[in-house]
Each structure stands twice: as structure tokens, then as C-alpha cells.
Amino acid sequence: MSPAGVTWLVVAILTVVLVGVLLAFVVRNTRTRPATEPFAAEPEDRPVAAVVVNPTKVDADTREVVTALCVEAGWAEPLWLETTVEDPGPGQTADAVGREVDVVMACGGDGTVRAVAEALAGTGVALGLLPAGTGNLLARTLECPLDLPTATRVALSGDDRVIDIGRVRVDGGDEEHAFLVMAGTGFDADVMGNTPEALKARVGPLAYVFAGLRAMRGRRTRVTITLDGGPPLRRRSRTVLVGNSGTLLGGLVLMPEALVDDGVLDVVNLAPKGIPGWIAVAARVISRRRRGHSRVEHWTAREVVIVAGDPQASQIDGDPIGDATEMRIRVDPGALVVRVPERSPAAEETPPGAPGVGPARAHHRVTAFTPRGDHMIMEVA
């Protein structure tokens, strides 16, 4: 073989050997290197949720379930903040906001949800709903799921909806309390205050029915209702309710036109006399009509003042707050962000105050029923 042929043979052999070495190196490193997702977030970059939980309302495995769902969705393990008798939620929520969490989940009854929402109002941090109470009225109003796994997934990946909240000042006090669904005085508050927790735990919402039947025979009282600083309306009443939402337990709707994001509050005065009156009022509520009984009146307003002739039992979102003579209530428009199911009709609504769009009911409609059952409507500027 010529020297040139030998040279090319050596070069070919060396090339084969070099390629073999490189292939062996690549194969060995491919086998030993752990598989990674090239786009997986680093642990410190994952979103974080906080769960403000009422420990008396949840099962033993609730924390484990919520944590597993967070990790499954690519979130960090959630902060777990339990409420106490001394602090039913605002302090824990403020702590969570200070840690710059991405969502705060309220896990408990309507009282826990209200306490968390009060602390979240105006922060822009979203509220997630993990319903664990008897009523769960805000979750029902916003058509949020009531089972824990689905509710957790919605809280992590649902759409954001901006809603109003109500603010209440009682008997001239310095502190304003927030509510999400309803506040009121009279019969409704009597029922809430006289329904034993043990009975609610045993029979659920049916417990309120038993308490309601006992309270039906109570007497009407004189009240004065002032809407947006207008002339006082003097009425006899069994209950006056101011609602951000009109939904009651069992899907009943007391205020058919109430919306949680219309920038106004709905007011209803019920003044039935005796059991027949209550039956007529109940028929009107079940039918979801504004008409049907002469002792049912509806109004809308941004500010409402209720003054009772005698101290009356009062409640905020179903939580009794004791007897009160005066309740000053106002709407705080667009104060709260809530996670709702994706692509739900609620989430797709344009929030009030958006450019070029006004509230759903920019005017104040006052509807009153005459003794014949007719109604009159006044437009109030």
C-alpha cells in the first residue's frame, strides 16, 4: 500500500474511534441525567395561595387535599392560616397579603368569607371560595362549586370577577363592617340569632326553617328608612333587608333584580301580619316576582339608613351582631375581586365603571305596592 493510502487509512480509523467516544459520552450522560421539563418553573417562582381556614368547619384531610391540588396545578404548597375566636380572619388575610400571595382562599362558612373579604377589599388580591358552611350564599350567588376539589381548582385557575361590597355602621359606631350578601334587622336577624349551631350541624339549612316558624308570630315595629338622603319613609315592619345579592337558602330569590356588581344596593321591607301574611309573602318570594302582596316594598339606593322605634335584632351575612336601633349602610362599588368558574356568564360581564360603560342600574328605581297589589315606580336621580 502506498504511503498516501496508509495515511488515509489511519485518518479513517482515528475518525471512527473519535466518533465512537463522542457517542458513548452522549449516551452515558443521557442515561444518568434526570429528566427535566425545560419550561418548568423554579420552586421560588411558582405562584402561592394562602388558605384562611376556620378549623371548626373542615374535615381532617382538608389541608392534604388542598395542598395536593395546588402542587398538581404547578403552584407552591399553600400557606395554611387558621382563624381563632379572637381573630376570625382579617389578621390572617392581612398577613397573606403582606407575603404577596396570588390568591387568598376563604375556607369556612359565610362569616369566614366575610372576614377575609373585608380584609381583601381594595387590595386587588383575588378571593377564592372554599365553601364549608351551611349557607355559602356568595358561592351560590356566583355559581361557584360547593365541593372542595372543584372549588379549589376554580380558586387557582378560574376567572376574576369584580364585585361590590356593602358597608354597615351600627348605632353611630366608629367601625364599619363589610357584607357581601345581605344585612338587616328584625325577623331575619331573629331567625339567624336563634338557630342553634348544633341543629345546623345536624340538619343543615332546615334548621333555619324551625327557627323561622317560631319567630313568625312576632309583632311588627315602626321603622324609618332613608334612601340616598331623601325624605324619610315611615313604615311598619317585620324585617328590613339590604342586599348586595338577593339569593336566599334553597335557591330562593328575595330580591330578583339584585346584582353584585351594579353599584347599588337593593332594599326590601316585609310587613306581613300573622301567618296568612307570611304565606302570601312566601308565595311572592317563591315566584320570584316583585308583585304579589301589598306588604312587600322594594327600593334601590347607594346609601340606606334604617332607624327602628325599638332596638331590633340585627345581622350581617347571617352573623348576629346584637340588637341595634340604627343601621347606616352604603355600597362600596367594585371593591373586591373574586375567582369564579372559567368562561362563566358572571365572569364575562363588564364590571361597572369600565370605560364607556355605566352600572347595570345607574338610576335608582323605587317600587312600592299599593293595597290592590299594583305598583308604582319612581326614577330618582
Write the layout of secondary structure elements.
Blueprint: H1 3-32, E1 49-53, H2 62-72, E2 79-82, H3 90-98, E3 103-108, H4 110-120, E4 126-131, H5 137-141, H6 148-157, E5 159-170, E6 177-179, E7 182-186, H7 187-193, H8 197-203, H9 206-215, E8 221-227, E9 233-237, E10 239-243, E11 265-270, H10 274-287, E12 296-301, E13 303-316, E14 319-340, H11 345-348, E15 364-369, E16 375-380
Helix pairs in contact: 2-6, 3-4, 7-9
Question: Can you put this structure into words, describing what you see?
Answer:
The chain is an alpha+beta fold and 381 residues long. It is 31% helix and 31% strand. The chain contains 11 helices and 16 strands. It has helices at 3-32, 62-72, 90-98, 110-120, 137-141, 148-157, 187-193, 197-203, 206-215, 274-287, 345-348; strands at 49-53, 79-82, 103-108, 126-131, 159-170, 177-179, 182-186, 221-227, 233-237, 239-243, 265-270, 296-301, 303-316, 319-340, 364-369, 375-380. The strands form 2 sheets. Strands 5, 6, 7, 8, 9, 10, 11, 12, 13, 14, 15 and 16 form a 12-stranded antiparallel beta sheet that branches. Mean pLDDT is 80; it is low at 2-12, 30-39 and 348-381.
